[in-house]
Design goal:
Length: 418
């Protein structure tokens, strides 16, 4: 979820110049919240929070009406309701979001094969080859917005520019429900007027460091010697910011993306001190992570554990595997091993499992597969989930009441477009 609340929104006129542009960044507006409004129109116009409905829940998305009160993603629902007492809280429905995301991505692929999904609700498109069919990039953007609204009932914001970096900034500046075109000749002036934090990849700490040197706007970066930027941000960071400020971004739209990680984590309704219960939850999470790995045709080279105590102290542990895997039992064994090496200092509020250092599955198989039996179990579970739904079949050892607050996957992405 973006942090913007729609204030300061800038959009292009109908006759805006799109000279030299070819990249679109499309971002669905308050996607999860918008889907909930689509399915229940009575929620339209109200401050809406999508998140865990229990007291320990976390905000996954919020409508623009709620954002204007300061509600942000990853904020606890309790804090969000203190900021916006009249907000309506609804639980997330990820299957519904995923279905609509697939529909939106299909529209993108109908326009151009050069689509790079960034997440479930945003993507880059290279429309340089679509001119004969659809017109100029600006015309393509307007047609795309109209099709998304007509075919899904949802709205999106689109930035059009010569580079990915500027297109993403433009889509952010025109939200919600806007279109902003930055022609190649206008790029330098557009960037110069922005605050340094608007540059893609300049986080709060980097922005604070730059502002501490009096570098508050991109124009200040342009006026600063490169060695000053490198002194503040390090050699790589300084070079990167200098290039972005000058509009230099050679990255192409990548249609094949390899996930960096896949994870699931749970915030519990009540803090849990029992180690056996926590081990069961790690099994549950590991099976979910493994299923997503298999769905994406990937294997994990590293398994990471995240644990947050009742006082919000957070620990992270990771282990590299002898062989990459997508087997739930193997991932669970490693996650539990990492957990058992931690001396529980207090009850646990949140626990998570993440698969990292991912690679494509399908490499050479060993002559002897120690996980053959478990692979057959996973295949049976996958088949049951496909036929009857995600919660239809699970391990007997993890049966019991739900302990989490109905959170979404930590980095939900979709299978590759066929």
């Amino acid at each position: 979820m973006g942090r913007g609340d729609g204030k300061g929104r800038v959009v292009s006129a109908d006759d805006a110049d799109d000279t030299g542009t070819r990249i679109l960044h499309v971002d669905m507006d308050a996607f999860y919240a918008s889907v909930e409004v689509l399915d229940d129109p009575s929620l339209a116009g109200t401050p809406l929070i999508v998140g865990g409905i229990e007291g320990r829940g976390v905000v996954s998305s919020a409508s623009y009406e709620a954002r204007r009160y300061g509600v942000r993603s990853a904020m606890s629902v309790q804090v969000a309701l203190r900021l916006c007492p009249n907000a309506v809280v609804v639980p997330p429905h990820f299957d519904r979001y995923a279905a609509l995301s697939r529909q939106v991505m299909a529209i993108f692929h109908d326009i151009t094969p050069l689509v790079e999904p960034l997440s479930i609700d945003e993507a880059f498109l290279d429309v340089s080859g679509a001119r004969r069919l659809w017109g100029s990039p600006g015309q393509v953007a307007r047609m795309l917005r109209a099709r998304v609204r007509a075919e899904t009932g949802l709205v999106c914001s689109v930035g059009v520019a010569a580079t990915k970096h500027v297109a993403k900034i433009a889509s952010t500046r025109c939200k919600p429900d806007g279109l902003l075109i930055v022609s190649e000749p206008d790029t330098a002036a557009f960037l110069a007027a922005l605050p340094v934090a608007a540059l893609w990849g300049v986080g709060p700490k980097a922005a604070e460091a730059l502002e501490g040197r009096g570098i508050r706007r991109v124009a200040d970066i342009l006026a600063s010697p490169r060695h000053v930027l490198e002194r503040v941000l390090g050699p790589a960071g300084g070079e990167r910011v200098w290039q972005l400020a000058h509009g230099i971004d050679p990255r192409e739209v990548e249609t094949e993306r390899i996930e960096k990680s896949i994870g699931h984590e749970e915030t519990f309704r009540h803090d849990i001190a029992d180690a056996g219960t926590l081990r069961s939850e790690l099994r549950r999470l590991s099976d979910r992570v493994a299923a997503r790995l298999r769905d994406g045709g990937m294997q994990a080279g590293t398994v990471a554990l995240k644990l947050r105590y009742a006082d919000f102290t957070t620990l992270s542990r990771a282990a590299t595997l002898p062989e990459p895997t997508d087997v739930g039992q193997r991932i669970g064994d490693v996650a539990i091993g990492l957990f058992e090496a931690i001396e529980l200092a207090q009850p646990v509020r949140l626990i998570g499992v993440r698969a990292e250092k991912l690679r494509s599955a399908g490499g050479l198989l060993a002559l002897w597969d120690d996980d053959a039996e478990w692979r057959r179990v996973d295949a049976a579970l996958d088949g049951a989930r496909e036929r009857f739904g995600g919660g239809a079949v699970t391990r007997a050892s993890i049966l019991g009441p739900r302990r989490d607050v109905n959170a979404l996957p930590t980095n939900p992405r979709l299978p590759r477009h066929e």
